[in-house]
Amino acid sequence: MADFYQNGIITTLHNMADRPLEELEAELVRFARRRPMGLILPSLYSELEGDALPGIVDHLERVPYLSQIVVGLDRADESQYRSALAFFSRLPQHHRVLWNDGPRLRALDEELQHFDLAPREMGKGRNVWYCMGYTLASQRSESVALHDCDILTYDRSLLARLIYPVAHPQFNYEFCKGFYARVADGKINGRVSRLLVTPLLRALKKTLGDMEFIEYMDSFRYPLAGEFSFRRDVLNDIRIPSDWGLEIGVLSEMYRNYANNRLCQADIADVYDHKHQELSAEDASKGLSKMSTDIAKALFRKLATRGVTFNTETFRSLKATYYRIALDFVETYHNDAVMNGLTLDIHNEEKAVELFAENIMKAGEAFLDRPMERPFIPSWSRVESAIPDILERLLDAVEQDNMEYAG
Predict the structure, then answer these.
(1) What GO MF annotations does this protein's record show (predicted)?
(2) Is residue 285 pLDDT above 70, yes or no?
C-alpha cells in the first residue's frame, strides 16, 4: 500500500485503497459522455508475435469507456500489416492501425521531409508523433492515454488509473505521468531511471545550483515510464524527441507549456515488468548505452534552453559528482532489496554506473560538438501552418490503407 506523501512540486495521486476496478471503470464510462477517451499504442510488428501484446489486447477488449484505439505499427511489410489488421480486429472500440512503412504514409513523410518538418530518425518518438497527428485529425478523443506494447504484467486497471486524472471533468490536469515499482521476479529493475536519471539530476543540482526545472524533473517518481495521458489540446503544441529521450522530452515540454498545478503523476500498477534492454557496453549504438546517452543529451539541451552554459569543465565536474552519488545509490538500493527479500547484483549495478558516467561525458561532448542538432520533431501546429491540409491527408491515408488491406 502506498503512502500519502507529496514530494517535489508535482501532485502525486497514490493508490492507497485498492479501489475496485469496476468502480473506476463505471466512473470513466460516465466521464466519457462528456470527454471521449482514446488510447495510443506505439508498436513494432515483432511485438504482435511476443508474449505481452496478445495479453494486452485481451484486456483492452473488456475496456468499456474508450472511444478510440490508435496503433502505430513500425517495421512491417504488406503481409505483416494485413496480419496486424486481423490481430487487432477483435477490439470492439473504433480502432485504426497506422502502417508507418506503407507507401501512403511514406509519401506523406517524404513531403514533410521536403519542408524539413519530418522526424529525423526512426523509432518510438516518430511512431508516437504520427499517432498523435492521427488522433488530432480524427477528433474522436478529448482525453488520450499512451502506453507501451511490451508490458508483460498488463492489467486494464493500469489504463483506468492512468487516464482517470485527465478524464475527470472536475480535475484540471492536462497531463498525467504514470509510475510504479519496477520490481519483478525477485529483482529491482529500472536501472536507467535508478542509476542514471535520479543521480544525474542530483548531480546537476550540486553542479549548477538550485533550479526549478531540475526540481521539477526530480519530482517524478519514475521519469522514464512510457505511460502517460493528456488532454487533446496538448497534442497540438508539444515537441517530442525522436530518440530515447522521448520521455524526458515530453516532461520538459509539459514544464515549458503548462503550470505545475496542471500536471500530476499517478500510481498505476503494483507490479510492472516489460522487455529488458541489454546494457550493451561494447556497442554505444544499442541498448542501455545508447539510451543513457540520448537521455543525458536531452537533459543538457533542455537546460541550455533555460540559459545554462556548458563547457568541457562543467561536464567533467558533473561526471565526477554523478559517479559518487550513483555509487551511493547502489548501496541504498542493495539495502532496500535485502530488507525486502529481493536480489540485487552490486557488481553489475556498478558496471552500469561506470558506463553511464562515460556516456555523460560522451553526451556532453556531442552537445558541444553539434550545437545545432535538432532531435525534436516540430509540433503539429507548426506543421499545419506550413501544410494546412496535412491532418486531413493523414486521416485519409490511414483510412485508405484500412479499406484496401483489411479485407
Answers:
(1) transferase activity
(2) no
